[in-house]
Write a structure and sequence with these properties.
CATH topology of one domain: Substrate Binding Domain Of Dnak, Chain:A, Domain 2
Pfam families: BAR_3_WASP_bdg, PX, SH3_1
Radius of gyration: 32 Å
Oligomer: single chain
Number of helices: 11
Number of strands: 13
Strand content: 5-15%
Distance between the termini: 102 Å
CATH superfamily of one domain: Arfaptin homology (AH) domain/BAR domain
Protein name: Sorting nexin
InterPro entries: AH/BAR_dom_sf, PX_dom, PX_dom_sf, SH3-like_dom_sf, SH3_domain, SNX18_PX, Snx9_fam, Sorting_nexin_WASP-bd-dom
CATH class of one domain: Mainly Alpha
Structural class: alpha+beta
Family: Belongs to the sorting nexin family.
Keywords: Cell cycle, Cell division, Cytoplasmic vesicle, Endocytosis, Membrane, Mitosis, Protein transport, SH3 domain, Transport
Shape: globular
């Protein structure tokens, strides 16, 4: 079956990478997935480019046979000229989202065929440009060509689609095909039909129903497709994610090569002859000791790739964006601290730290090897091990090690824990923020008022010209100055103790926001297991099929429990370290206050 698109409107290309089209012309589609309202296709001459999805009708039909005049099928329905590629611009400039002058069809425009599906992967990073001016795409980030299929990107080669016979014949070393399609018959609610020729005497085959809500996390993550046996793909040894049984239950296999990464030297950079400015951060991983420079938009792109790829892993949230004041020193410092926390959690995660796209982000010098950087970027955006196929990469212990009731109890307990922790974190963050505000403004002002009052008393005493009162007057004035200094100490202290606590709380609030979706995937899988068991008890489903569903649910449960274990590990580590830091800074602070008061006290010894 060939996937084609017929143009319903004339379209004239105005940007590199687009192809023009005339009404009625058909082109082959590279993918049915639209890219921010654009489709990618190939015309009869083999030219590849983009055209608006709303201007075409997607057709699912067999390749047309040879026309009556004997013309080759590829030229059928293609008038002279057909789709013409837009000449490339002279300089190698960034590929920007098309800014064509056409107007899209009115709302309700009939697409025909199957509805276009939202693209889970962005083929062109330029379509993900953020709204802030510092996050716009630029030359060193994007171009109009796609080089993801070139060898060497992300340390691995691209694998073409192979049929079953090709897979059976063997492939590259360390690469094998996994499929979950063999043991489940699907029928109702959009499922695949049951086998056409079931063995005689087989039980009547019931189906495990699909979720009615196709926008649920369980569906969008690919968890449902995996559990229902629809995942199929090639898995390389390097893509395997191992869950092992530790002393406290399932956990991710440790990273054999742990590392850390520093983030320093935030520097304001410019381009376009000073018309655009941004902040660049220097990253130095300990396992390479080679510095690379990244902008916030690079972090943002990396986060989007990781969140898409790992549905059962809590990818830490990045520090929030800010539309104004991006170049103020306080904001740059705060963002850097947030990025340090983010990087710490990334490097500490056994799975995320070893992920190809993360290693590419840390090690590829985009400023000196632009081609390698773009190859890795495109490769990551075309990663096939996402959605349902991601779960094929999970390698877990024997399923007998899991009791579903115990798993459900642990998940429910963790769900209650995250709710309570989230509420407590919000309360602590509010309290700390309010207390810091009082220290910076209220406490400083009050202590300075006390100091001013003491100095006023000293000035009054100076009206007495007696020599024996001079020492007292000076001591009281010094006491007033000491209270002024204490007020300044209060104003500066939140940066030392409360701000780091609030930064940590913000990071964990991001983690806590991730877990409802992670839990939803596991709960959805467990629901399918219960439904299949009910069918078995009623004699409507073979035990083998139900066991397949349970095995795949166990895979998801192992990964979920491993992620929960990792969360608790880093939580204990982080809060232990942060509370120690907080109390140490409090002790140092009050020691400084005590020192100021003792200095004032000694002034009275000579009176």
């Amino acid at each position: 079956m060939a996937l084609r698109a017929r143009a319903l409107y004339d379209f004239r290309s105005e940007n590199p990478g687009e192809i023009s089209g005339a009404r009625g012309v058909e082109s082959s589609l590279c993918s049915e997935q639209d890219i921010e309202g654009w489709l990618e296709g190939v015309n009869s001459r083999g030219d590849r480019g983009l055209f608006p999805a709303s201007y075409v009708q997607v057709i699912r039909a067999p390749e047309p046979g040879p026309p009556g005049d004997g013309a080759p099928a590829r030229y059928a329905n293609v008038p002279p000229g057909g789709f013409e590629p837009q000449p490339a611009a002279p300089p190698a400039s960034a590929f920007q989202p098309p800014q064509s002058t056409f107007q899209p069809p009115a709302a309700g425009f009939p697409y025909g065929g199957a509805a276009l599906q939202p693209a889970p992967q962005q083929l062109y990073g330029g379509y993900q440009a953020s709204q802030g001016s510092d996050d716009d795409w630029d030359d060193e980030w994007d171009d109009s060509s796609t080089v993801a299929d070139e060898p060497g990107a992300l340390g691995s080669s691209a694998y073409p689609d192979l049929d079953g016979s090709a897979a059976a014949a063997g492939g590259a070393a360390g690469r094998y095909r996994l499929s979950t399609r063999s043991d489940l018959s699907l029928g109702s609610r959009g499922g695949a039909a049951a086998p056409q020729h079931p063995p005689s005497g087989a039980k009547s085959s019931a189906t495990v129903s699909r979720n009615l809500n196709r926008f649920s996390t369980f569906v969008k993550s690919g968890g449902e497709a995996f559990v229902l046996g629809e995942a199929s793909g090639f898995v390389k040894d390097g893509d395997k994610l191992c869950v092992v049984l530790g002393p406290y239950g399932p956990e991710w296999q440790e990273n054999p090569y742990p590392f850390q990464c520093t983030i320093d030297d935030p520097t304001k950079q410019t381009k376009f002859k000073g018309m655009k400015s941004y902040i660049s951060y220097k990253l130095v991983p300990t396992h390479t000791q080679v510095p690379v420079h990244r902008r916030y938009k690079h972090f943002d792109w990396l986060y989007a790739r990781l969140a898409e790829k790992f549905p059962v892993i809590s990818v830490p949230h990045l520090p929030e964006k800010q539309a104004t004041g991006r170049f103020e020193e306080d904001f740059i410092s705060k963002r850097r601290k947030g990025l340090i926390w983010w990087m710490n959690h990334m490097a500490s995660h056994p799975v995320l730290a070893q992920c190809d796209v993360f290693q590419h982000f840390l090690t590829c010098p985009s400023s000196t090897d632009e081609k390698a950087w773009k190859q890795g970027k495109r490769k990551a955006e075309k990663d096939e091990m996402v959605g349902a196929n991601f779960f094929l990469t999970l390698s877990t212990p024997p399923a007998a090690a899991l009791d579903l009731q115990e798993v459900e109890s642990k998940i429910d307990g963790f769900k209650c824990f995250t709710k309570k922790m989230d509420d407590s974190a919000l309360q602590l963050n509010h309290t700390a923020n309010e207390f810091a505000r009082k220290q910076v403004t209220g406490f400083k002002k009050e202590y300075q008022k006390v100091g001013q009052s003491f100095r006023g008393l000293s000035q009054a005493f100076e009206l007495d010209q007696q020599a024996f009162s001079v020492g007292l007057n000076q001591a009281i004035a010094f006491t007033g100055d000491a209270y002024d200094a204490i007020g300044e100490l209060f104003a500066e202290q939140p940066r030392q103790d409360l701000d780091p606590v609030m930064d940590l709380l913000a990071l964990y609030q991001g983690h806590l926001a991730n877990f409802p979706d992670i839990i939803h995937v596991q709960k959805g899988a467990l629901t399918k297991v219960k439904e299949s068991r009910r069918h078995v008890e009623e004699g409507k489903m073979e035990v083998q099929k139900a066991d397949g569903i349970q095995d795949r649910c166990n895979t998801i449960s192992f990964a979920t429990l491993a992620e929960i274990h990792h969360f608790h590990q880093i939580r204990v580590r982080d809060f232990k370290s942060q509370m120690q830091h907080f109390l140490q800074q409090q002790i140092i602070f009050f020691q400084k206050v005590t020192q100021k008061l003792e200095e004032a006290l000694h002034k009275y010894d000579s009176v």
